[in-house]
Amino acid sequence: MDMEQDTHHKKVAFVTGATSGLGLAIAKSLANAGYTVYGAGRRQAPSDVPANFTYVQTDVTSDESVRKSADYVFSREDHIDLLVCAAGSGISGAIEDIPVDQAESQLDVNFFGVVRAVQSFLPALRQQRRGKIIIIGSIAGRTGMPFQAYYSASKFALEGFVESLRYEVRAFNIEACIVEPGDFKTGFTGARQKIVPDKSAYRDTFEKVIGVQEHDETHGVDPMVAGEKIVQLVGSRRLPARITIGPLFERFAVWVRRIIPDGWFEAFYRIYYKL
Ligand SMILES: NC(=O)c1ccc[n+]([C@@H]2O[C@H](COP(=O)([O-])OP(=O)(O)OC[C@H]3O[C@@H](n4cnc5c(N)ncnc54)[C@H](OP(=O)(O)O)[C@@H]3O)[C@@H](O)[C@H]2O)c1
Questions:
Q1: What is the model's pLDDT at position 98?
Q2: pTM as predicted
Q3: 24-71: per-residue pLDDT in tens?
Q4: What is the DSSP letter of 96?
Q5: Predicted local distance difference test score (pLDDT) of residue 9
Q6: How far is the CA of 18 from the centre of ligand 1 (A)?
Q7: Domain locations in the chain?
Q8: Is the CB of residue 58 below 6 angstroms from any atom belonging to ligand 1?
Q9: What CA–CA distances, in Å, run from 166 to 72, 125, 159, 171?
């Protein structure tokens, strides 16, 4: 419902990953649209956030930290309208070169971080019998990216998670949607962990591919565009299961991926990344 129309009700949102990039842009856009926003992250949020943005220090890899943040919100608010899970990070390297504990840590942030937030807020959403959940996935969750296997795996996992979630919470009038961004210019590229041992058999190919990927990211869309899109999305009557946002060419590629044989899409990616 449009914020102006819904005058009796203060809208409250909790946004993870709100200290940088997409989460910060979403938090700012929601605050500008009138939401009372609780923005979570490990680092402080920048100082230029609107007055109705409250920073909540949170590490999504810790059950206790996420639960405490949810408790903090409910110590100040009697309801929650919206949960946005945008916290995430990237590990890149060859499948063979990345130790399992590092692969697990990727899943811990990007997948279990979402699980922790959803589990912490669902009881309240269920009791109030309404609310919306937005999960930030990725185009890399629709198509495996070379040398980002564990990142892609974490985002593919979220696709299934959101589909299952939608069935379970529908009876409680809770909606969920996975938003799949293409390339946006954020802190993600700088924060990415690159694992490439000196003797890696993949070094040259890895460097070529990651060069293309990082070029695309650093020439990506302004994250505020995503923020505005999310405000529009949560104001709509029904949340779709998924939407793709970002550069037109990338949104088109996701659409094409659905209708052409896998082999054709692979050939396109091989040409694009010179593999
Ligand atoms: N940028 C893109 O092109 C792109 C494309 C597709 C999908 N995405 C997705 O968009 C989301 C946001 O990424 P971004 O591009 O905005 O990158 P970013 O600028 O690096 O922001 C990442 C955010 O995640 C938070 N975060 C990371 N680890 C965390 C942890 N353990 N606990 C709590 N918060 C944590 C960071 O906060 P702290 O460091 O303060 O903890 C930061 O606020 C991610 O899920 C990413 O996968 C981005």
A1: 98
A2: 0.96
A3: 999 999 999 999 999 999 999 999 999 999 999 999 999 999 999 999
A4: G
A5: 82
A6: 8
A7: 12-272
A8: yes
A9: 26, 13, 11, 9
